[in-house]
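Input sequence (167 aa), recorded before submission:
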Amino acid sequence: MDNQNKSQIQFITPDSQIQDEAASVEISGLCPSDHDGASMSWAVWDQQNSEQPLVSGSTICNHGQFAVDLKQLDQYVCGQNHILVVQSDWGATTESQFSRRCQPAASQPETPPTGSPQGTTCELEYSPATAAAQPCSRVCYRDSQMVFSQSLDPNECSSLAAGLAGQ
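Predicted structure, C-alpha cell format:
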C-alpha cells in the first residue's frame, strides 16, 4: 500500500542542489489530476536533527502539479543535506533531498551549451579546499537549481587558481 501512496505524488527530481546565492527556490512535483485543488502540507527536516522541522507550509495540487516555494535559503547550511517531505490530504507522501551548493573559491561565467533552455546560466568553478579530488568543474543552473555538473582537468581552472594566488 505504501508504494501506491508514493507513486501518487512525486518530486520531479529526487535530489536538488541549489545555487548558493539564491534567495528562494521552487521545488516542483507531480500529483494526480483527479486530486486537483487538494491541499498538501510540507516540511523541511535537517538530516542531522530530526526532532522538529526547520520550516513547514502548505501547497495545492494544481492541474497535476505542485510546487514548494522555499524562501530564506540562507538559513540552510551549504553542503548539508535537507529532506523536503510532502504529504497530501488523501494520505500520499513523497520526499526529496536538497542542499545549497557551497560557494566556490573562484568562478567565472560561461556561455551555456548551444540548445540550452532559456534561463540556463553556467559557470567555471574552482574550489581547491572543498573538492581536492575534483577542484575544477563546469556547473549549469536553471531557476537556481543545478541541472548539469562536469569535472574538468584542473588546468582548465588555472586562470581562476592564479587569480586566487594573486589576492
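Checked by second reader. The helical segments are 2-8, 158-165.
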